[in-house]
Design a protein that fits this description.
heterodimer; A: about 350 residues; mainly alpha; ABC transporter involved in vitamin B12 uptake, BtuC; 2 domains; two-stranded antiparallel ribbon; 14 helices; about 0% strand; B: about 500 residues; alpha/beta; Rossmann fold; 3 domains; 6-stranded mixed sheet
Chain lengths: ~350, ~500
Amino acid sequence: MRWELDPSPSPRKVLLTYALFLGLALLGLGLLFLLYGVPPLKAYALLLSPLTDTLGLAEVMRRTIPLLLIGAGLALAFRIGFFNIGAEGQLLMGAVGAAYVALFLPPGLWSLPLMFLFGGSLGALWAGLAAWLRARFGVNEILTTLMQNYLVYYLVVYLVAGPWKGQMVFGFLYTDRFPPEAQLPRLGDTLVHWPTLVLGMVAAMGLQVLLFRTPLGFEWRVLGENPEAARYLGLKGGRLILLAALLSGFLAGLAGVGEVAGIHLRLLEPAQISLGYGFTAILAAWLARGRPLGVLLTAPLLGLILAGGDALKLALSMPFRVVDVAAGLLLLGFIGAEALSRRRLVWRR
Amino acid sequence: MGVREALARTWYSQGRALARPMLKLENITKRFGPVVANRRITLEVAPGEVLALLGENGAGKTTLVSILYGLYAPDEGRILLQGKEVRIHSPKEAQRLGIALVPQHPELIEAHTVAENLALGLDLPPVFSRRALVRRLAKLLEGHPLGVDLEAPVARLSAGEKQRVELLRALLNRPKVLILDEPTSVLTPKEAEALFQEIRRLKGLGLSVIFISHKLDEVLAIADRIAVLRAGEKVGEVLRQEADKDLLVRLMVGRSLAPPPKVPPPRAEVVLEVEDLLVPRHGFPVQGVSFALRAGEVLGIAGVAGSGQAELLQALAGLRPFQGRVRFLGEAWPQDPARLFALGVAHIPEERSMGVVEGMSVAENLALRTYRRLAPRGLLDYRIMEKEAEALIGRYGIRTPSPRTPVRFLSGGNVQKVILARELRGGPRLLLAMHPTYGVDVGAAEEVYERILDLVRGGSAVLLVSEDLDEILSLSHRVAALYHGRFVGPISREEADRERLGRMMTEGRV
């Protein structure tokens, strides 16, 4: 009996593996809940509760938006071998860009488009810097993008505590509220800033087409699968990587614009702007196996886990780290299933 | 004589079996998804016997070896060692049972010494002295001529010496069965002869040897019995005395081969002019390269592996900087692979893995040079891409379930055909080819030659780098060699023979 790689697993097998691992993760969670004296079934119900009412669905969707935008871009970046771990920082750059336009430029019809453009561009710049360093000097982008996260983090802290600190906010660390022209419309009473959602869906579909139906995408896929072949063909590897990095940074920047212009309506402390979307989106991209379109599925899934976790926090008043453990267990389940569905057990007679 | 008669002449199919086999495979079947790599293969080898496994690429030789060495589990069938059924879960288990493998490419740690590499095959105490190790190795290898310095770092050894180390490592565990996987592919003719001597000696000691090859001459020189695989099945088994080249070829490819075709004389027009080319590289540079290549001419470049051929070809293919003057059809030479291809320079790279993207489909790989043309309005037209691919698949006889199959699932010979089809389709003016038939079986090699000669007849020039002297001598108008990076020659084909070319390669003299 042993493991072998299964190059082309059947859909049924993949599905069963996922079901199995999800079951295992839930079982582990159940034990955890029992330790805290919460009946597991009640906890499971709470975890899935966002699916049962419109308000819950809205919560899922709200978290889906940044995951979708960032995840689509990362699916592309990872596919061509640019390991962008800095989406969180690129998102914050986007938020900074949006805040600048909203607070310091005269408001008007152009405010929102300009915020998306400027915020996205700052995100792109931030990712492009790492790509340029890699293409030019061979600097590992995992390190640069990761470190860049801290730089923006403290840039935002500095801005909201210093030069951009609001006039009417007393001791709080945030800017003034954005003018109405710089606020994104939402669906009803929810926090779903739908223009960003639409952007995310367009991005996922657009990148899918770009990657699988255009000459540029063709070159990206060649480079990602076999850099040696790309060299042999004379493809411009540096330029291709830079372009993909710019795109993924731009999309992360858009996500940042959405968060501040759609939900918070001001620039505030970085930990409140993003709930680690830049990192969770890595999972969304990875579960989508390098297919931007797949993120349309994985982003809501992760959105549900995040929203369900919040529901648990509120309803059970459990220490909220426990909820993070719950989300972590579920994600581990997915990772395990993903890895295992591509292997097979061979029984020897 | 057709295949049917050839089969009828084989003795194993008539039900004769060995009295006391050392190793026996019974009805081994192995599938990879829909592909059957081995179908009901039965083989046996006696002590002191050399069994050759002959077959084209993709015939299932490597799979069979992997099963024997514990890398794959068979789906069906049994393996018997000295009459007892065994299950080989892992290479370690194979070694414990007395089955040793000398891999096709030596898998040694270059920075370490020979003794240290050999030590990897031993159970050693956690702390041991260098001297004790050498003493122990010398004792273990008593009776086997060493032929290499135990204290030498592996990086300094020639390909032949490295293989010798692999062989010694295999012998350390006193195996009963020794498997040699395409052992001569990295050797010079002289080194190959030395290896054969050694195999004969081991055979005399009662070892069972399984010799895997697709080279007929070798198999006829060393084997006692020859089993031929084709498309995953054993199509015949012959005793050495009863075998001849013709019969083996028929069994291998299912038809007989045409005699090597005549190459027409070159034309007057000069296609490629190289003057005083110098390619810097690690170790010694490639230097003194000067030649003019005319339309319809093949220049063959021979050399022991690592003499700088790869670097020379990479430089000409735009993948490596060089100094000196290179002109193509009278124009300056751009150092850009894409532009070179557009100008009419095709390139068959040294490594197949460089020439294809394994995860992409056959159709996409065939379009690697022309995809831009397939997107007139910005979007790639996969219908046309696949249609074009189908035409090439038919013309070049690429065996693939469909144009959409990832290249990963194709055998080595078919991957080579994909590269060839893509590079030659536009009728290039110049072909840079390195080892175009490396690891390709007789049938496919013949097709590769035929395609290259078609190109030459049409007036294209070919720069052929190969370690196969027969290949160079049968295709080239002129031959040259590289000796430690120094360009030797070229001389005309009429003045060259194996011995002279061999001297150029190993002594650097014309």
